[in-house]
Fold this protein.
Amino acid sequence: MGKKKKKTSTEEELSTDELGITEKKKTTKKKTIKKSSSKKTTKKKKTTKKTTKKSTSKKTKKKTTKKKLEKTDFIQSSCNVGLVGHVDHGKTTLVKALSGTWTEKYSDEINRGITIKLGYAEAAIMQCPNCNLVIAESVANNLRKSKKDQKGMCPKCGTKLNFKRRISFVDAPGHEILMATMLSGASLMDGALLLIAANEICPQPQTREHLAALGIAKIENIIIIQNKVDSVSKEKAIEHYNQIKEFVKGTIAENAPIIPTSAIFNSNIDLISQKIEEIIISPELDYDSEFLFNIARSFDVNRPGSEIDSIHGGVIGGSIITGKISVGEEIEIRPGFRSKDGKYSSIVTTVQTIYEGKNSLNSAKPGGLIAIGTKLDPSLTRTDQLIGNVAGKPSTLPEVQYTVEIEAHLLKEVLGAEEKIAVTPIIKNELIMIVVGTSLSAGMVQNIGKKNTITLKLKRPICALDGSIVAISRRIKNRFRLIGYGYLVS
Ligand code: GDP
Ligand code: ZN
């Protein structure tokens, strides 16, 4: 269906399901409904709780105050942990085991059984003041002997756990057609769990391609999860372990620990949360640079038929790269909107709300994914229209570029396909797809200069800092495949 279109022009190519865009459009509406209805139910719950509490004992009243305090004291996630690897190797199941929540799925995704967009969840990492055990809160709660046992206790010694830090999980899609979404997700990750299922030969094509993407994005804090060990014999698991060792030799993950796991049976999940704490350290925050925000999602959170007075402005979701932002401040979004002449004009708006998950914040800093509610007309943010844009304080963002120069470095071979295909040099007039930050574009190669610097005339402009990492893909047998990386040069 979409395939015929693909061949007509690049602009259309950019919106084909090959890049995971068409599906997004189809599904966003459902999400909108889901989100707003879930909000409503939580609100409802709160009010009923309050009223019952009023009429009961003092003890319960105390609890309410405590809850409120926790809410205002909410501490933002300090890093994004990516989950990468071949489709069906257990990424979404592991996020659930670590965080206690399924990353939000769209009904299309449920039907097809694959993650289409970047999934998102978060977990509080706790530490025992007595035995120093480090563990994710929901993992500790899962390890309780009985559901009646108190939550938040150390599973080893029974002491009350202390909060250490909050982390976010970014669940990247593992299907080969969604590589562009994976690449834009990689630009947000501070570390990653590479999942490799023990019941398949290692490496599978996207295991290879995702590991290369981690290398390109310079994500060095990697933990390898040998998942589904429940489904193979001990001998097979050892053989598979050796395949992993062989596969990562000479790569960025050469010295990464390998943890055998069964995500579905919750086995060794406690060990993973400890390793995350050890290896995926929160990056140092850059408060001093200008506020820069990569947009990874955008939504209209209103339910169809909402009253005008209760309509919420457009919401942008993503990660702060540098600086901070507070409610009430103005932001500019670039490249912004396309006008009829093909030029893009930036959008200026005001931040009305900031959320991490269900928690409202007054200001936010770099770390986990957040959602910024703006004064924009929600039709402008509907169906992920603003993906790949960046937000900053007005007049501080880099110029929008319609033509880019990239110092390109090519891989030796294409990693994402079943068969071995050598990467041949990029040639003039070739169509190249690039991902810079969360932004996806494509263009024809106009020139090839010294040091393999290619000049690309883009179909969709980008707004990015000089020196930004660029993932480079080319069309091979009807699929865009990762063939290399580069840096933006001015
Ligand atoms: P993703 O595509 O990598 O996100 O994989 P999912 O988390 O959606 O899992 C794919 C399938 O594998 C689902 O049917 C899971 O129930 C199953 N699965 C996940 N983890 C395990 C595991 O540890 N053992 C077994 N046997 N199955 C698993
Ligand atoms: Zn303890």
